[in-house]
């Protein structure tokens, strides 16, 4: 017999998977209609707010890892939406700027995002509570995160074997 807390964990996991899939569909729609992913739009949008930001500050502002930011900037550069060059004041840093086409893309995409994300905005408090709860799950032990959500078994053993 499945205990009540296990049922709740399974329900929570199912909901998280559903939300993840919905975000993937939304991202695919944005890419198809606008040529930008959600992360790419966020990078462009933040660059307009923080024109002299370092890559690290920009990554934190967008909420992505430096590696994800580097990939996004590379794609945006290939699309001609950002300029990435040497910083004349510091050879260790890169100068990042939005191009004119990048500004136009942000304006166009912003209208589309506002319309598409109106319902998500209404749920912002709930989404932030979920995010905060997930941040409290220790990241140093990935198997703990799966167990906390009621998932265990073969995948946990396989992960543990790889770490040894």
What would you say this structure looks like, in words?
The structure is a single chain. The chain is mainly alpha-helical. The protein has a single domain (4-122), classed as Orthogonal Bundle (Arc Repressor Mutant, subunit A), CATH 1.10.10.10. The protein has nine helices and two strands, in the order ααααββααααα. The chain has helices spanning 4-34, 38-49, 55-62, 66-78, 100-116, 118-122, 124-135, 142-148, 154-163; strands spanning 82-86, 94-98. A two-stranded antiparallel sheet has the order 1-2. The radius of gyration is 20 Å and the shape is globular.
Strand content: 5-15%
Number of strands: 2
- Overall tally of structural domains: 1
Helix-residue proportion: over 70%
Tell me the span between the first and last alpha carbons.
34 Å
- The secondary-structure class comes to mainly alpha
Shape-level CATH architecture: Orthogonal Bundle
**Cα-atom Rg, whole angstroms?**
20 Å
Query: Which superfamily, in CATH terms, is the homologous superfamily?
Result: Winged helix-like DNA-binding domain superfamily/Winged helix DNA-binding domain
- Please state the average pLDDT score: 77
CATH topology name, in short, is: Arc Repressor Mutant, subunit A
The CATH class is identified as Mainly Alpha
The main sheet comes to: 2 strands, antiparallel
Keywords:
two-stranded antiparallel ribbon; 164 residues; 9 helices; globular; mainly alpha; disordered C terminus; Arc Repressor Mutant, subunit A
Question: How would you concisely characterize the structure shown here?
Answer:
With 164 residues, this protein is mostly helical.
């Amino acid at each position: 017999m499945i205990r009540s807390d296990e049922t709740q964990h399974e329900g929570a996991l199912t909901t998280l998977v559903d939300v993840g899939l919905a975000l993937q569909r939304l991202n695919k729609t944005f890419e198809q209609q606008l040529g930008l992913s959600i992360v790419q739009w966020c990078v462009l949008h933040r660059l307009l707010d923080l024109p002299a930001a370092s890559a690290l500050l920009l990554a934190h502002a967008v909420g992505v890892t430096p590696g994800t930011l580097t990939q996004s900037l590379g794609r945006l550069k290939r699309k001609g939406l950002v300029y990435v060059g040497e910083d004349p004041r510091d050879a260790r840093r890169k100068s990042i700027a939005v191009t004119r086409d990048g500004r136009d893309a942000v304006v166009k995409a912003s209208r589309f995002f506002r319309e598409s994300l109106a319902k998500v905005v209404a749920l912002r408090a709930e989404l932030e509570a979920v995010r905060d709860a997930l941040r409290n799950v220790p990241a140093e032990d990935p198997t703990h995160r799966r167990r906390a959500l009621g998932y265990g078994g073969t995948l946990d053993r396989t992960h543990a074997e790889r770490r040894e």
